[in-house]
Amino acid sequence: MVGVAFSNVICKVIICQMSSTQPELFHWFLFPLALVVYAAISGLLGRMEEAALGASTALLTAAHLHYGVCVGRQLSEHLNIYIFSLKKRVQE
């Protein structure tokens, strides 16, 4: 869960660096991460700790994959190529 959250943060920082834009000061992935970790450490989750960590990991992974697909789609349209191919798109 921590690895997925921080890989998404780093991916967004890299995209901001490439596009010369300012990155977010606080990434929204860090709030649910901190919330679940705090609940697990404090014992609030009890027997549900493993399920909560698994569900949080699944949601963060899905959000990270969604971000990657969206960035890939936008880059392919900007560069006028197909993803995972060097062929140019037909001009319409």
Structure description:
The chain crosses the membrane at residues 25-45. Keywords: Membrane, Transmembrane, Transmembrane helix. With 92 residues, the chain is mainly α. 67% of the residues lie in helices and 0% in strands. The chain contains three helices and no strands. The protein has helices spanning 2-19, 30-42, 49-79. The mean pLDDT is 87.
Brief characterization of the structure:
This protein has helices at residues 2-19, 30-42, 49-79. The protein is an all-alpha fold and 92 residues long.
Main β-sheet description = none
Could you report the average pLDDT, rounded to the nearest whole number? 87
Helical proportion, percent range? 55-70%
Low-confidence segments: none
Query: So how many helices?
Result: 3
